[in-house]
């Protein structure tokens, strides 16, 4: 009997030992060998990005004293833009800062009614309000505060620009319709853009069109692009498309004896044309299209009308984030008996004026609405003042930072939620480099180094997108769980059933023995 | 939903409109041409050629070509981005029957074919090639992205550049075919989009897919190469040639009458030339005296592929071509007499053997010239999963061994590179030369099979290139007004002309596994493991006790008897 007990005990121990081996060795081994590789990600730093706060530093405003010599120099020069230049030479203002010069109330440098003059570079002249001679310097300066604040808010990055830059990511409640439109218009920040000019000639039988696009790009577009070089790489090309027609039939208006396109129909114009434009095969940068449409002989002249049924003076319109279209009527350039096809040279100055304005909008050069009494110097040949460029750098950096941080946080969230995704080392590396670049971008932005901030933010975007769109993330994503179970069940079921049964038996026996013992002791 | 806004143009200051120079005299020109040739089989062959010639250089250092007029921008960008020197791409549906139809103007194999010469400044040719095929598959809506290293070869002799320059280093050449590619409307539309007039005017109005794809043979191609600008060849120009060849089988459809018209073929008639074209012509082959209406006084003679043909020419740039009706509908009626010139070179190919283990590829090349022998270059590119036994390669002509004078063989690497076999074979006059090589079919991994593995695997056409001795003197003069169909391959000497013949692609069956096998294997293995484990577990945990062995049956019977007898029992 004792031998039998011993034997039963041995069986029990064996069952327990096997269960222990399965639990201690088998399960971890299986877990380890079937685990997906997941490299370490800086989750805590990423979650900090989620509530990122940029302590934006407004351009430092310095107030220079009215210095007699400067004053006389300016009076001597008499002309604002020369004064602007000489002031620029006098104190080289760094990127991202604005220098405000205060001139005496009595100065004849600015015309009577002009209070503030904003130059082409990063300088502004401010006519000081009247003050008593008894005031000391501090009092004089505090007296100026309101005006200086006004100048700075005109010339630098303000609330409006932040709204515009972040409109993609953040839903804001207090947004005016106009600023919303402004922000929707600008094309998304990208490391490069392709600008394509297309001449649409739907009627090559009547019109033989010539445009000197090469020269026009050189003289009108290139200066602006050179100025914008720190923001992105631009490449410009052009093509001529024949038999390309607009998507809508213009209506003949007897009152003006011309064909008209109403504002409502403009949205249908682009799609059929777009099929002909051709995608850019050689790069994946966003494309900005500028189309010059010369209506065919039977449908000219063609005019665009706005919502209030008035003729649009430029005869052009633009589609946000896509490009612009200009209608160029040529019917007045030849008589009815002219020999077909008529050779026509297109006036590129007129065309490029419109396209340049549209390009500025697309690139996000915001419209400034200066308060009364402000005079803005025209941006000159480059089409962009220095302070406008600074503003653009600002908003691009902020937009890039916002984009990169959303990409990174959503990637982290995704990886956190779906355990099946393999995270390779290169992805982890991209993510951490994106995070470091983001942090440096924010730091540089706070320090006011716009150029570095933009560069870091661009690196952050590149790294985050590379991580986000890495194809290795998808390898095991769609390996369904039920298939896994289908494969494991033939092995696991026969293995686990005896172990579980014998464990149950051991437990029930132990219970019974305890009950017996209790009965005995009672 | 598009948001629209209007903005006034900037008034540009300090900028007077510059003196408008008339755009630099058109440095690009466009020509279009259609050749119609009745075939002796009763079919009709229509061949379109569109040529854009642009006096520019895509490969110029430092200067980007970015302003396009007639040349399509998408192709121009591809040329400069990938430093392409020469690009030939063709999409073909159907097989050109050389023996019934004669030689085509520009031959092409069934499926898609792409061969590219890169500029010799390219350092990473394979990388460029990979990217280029992806971009082209986007431009032409074709599955060229399936071209990879496993079906790309670098032929050493068969594909020489057709344009300017004498590149000989075949490291910069890539050649690939996709014999399985199916060509349809979605390939035609992007091809038409590359034409300056699109399909709105000129000859291209005839290109309607519902007719073009209802035919025995359809082939569309794009050839880009640098060419001489003029006779003296002082400057280089880039030529884009778009060709479309189609063979209509109207004979069987038209109750056995040999009667054709433009309208019957294309369901359109011609009304105008493309206004951008400097020349726009229709050639009709009237060598065998078919009845043609409207008649035209313009005749042209051309020597094409060793044959002197007479053509009626219709010049679409002249108004009188269209007559009173302002539309040109050519009518051709033909009795069908006259002998067809037997093609001098012709090739066929088939797979022999039985079973799923080994097989034999036979390539048969015919020289139909009555008294001249000439050499041909045979190029074969065989996928790695047919493992060629190159020692079994035999070349026999007139039942005698015919030793190739040049053999270039590059063995395949499994999953990396196909076999490439190039041979220079001398074909005796009026003979049949047979090239055979044995192969073994490889077993693929289960993920490498196509979705329909029992359909078989395609092996691309072999290519036979040759300079065939001509019966008539070829025209070696380079003139501008030569018809396009006779000017594609430059003729270097009067006595011979260049011909390329493609054989049929092969369809080879590979041993196909049962695809539920992996799951079955997993289940079976798991069951075996589980059964083994079960008995092991049983053995370990079972309680053993000593049992009194019961007596065997014989002893028990004996005991029964013993009990009756009263004798002590056995134990």
TrEMBL record, chain A:
Parts of the chain that traverse the membrane: 12-31, 485-504
Origin superkingdom: Eukaryota
GO biological process: attachment of GPI anchor to protein; GPI anchor biosynthetic process
Keyword check for Transmembrane helix: yes
InterPro entries, per database record: PtdIno-glycan_biosynth_class_S (IPR019540)
Stored Pfam families: PIG-S
Organism: Cyprinus carpio (Common carp)
Subcellular location, principal: endoplasmic reticulum
Protein family: Belongs to the PIGS family.
GO cellular component terms attached to this protein's record: GPI-anchor transamidase complex
Gene name of the record: pigs
Keyword line: Endoplasmic reticulum, Glycoprotein, GPI-anchor biosynthesis, Membrane, Transmembrane, Transmembrane helix
Pathway the protein takes part in: Glycolipid biosynthesis; glycosylphosphatidylinositol-anchor biosynthesis
Protein name, UniProt field: Phosphatidylinositol glycan anchor biosynthesis, class S
Places the protein is found: Endoplasmic reticulum membrane
Membrane topology type: Multi-pass membrane protein
From TrEMBL, chain B:
Leader peptide range in chain numbering: none
GO cellular component: GPI-anchor transamidase complex
Tree of life domain: Eukaryota
Record-level GO BP terms: attachment of GPI anchor to protein
UniProt protein name: GPI transamidase component PIG-T-like
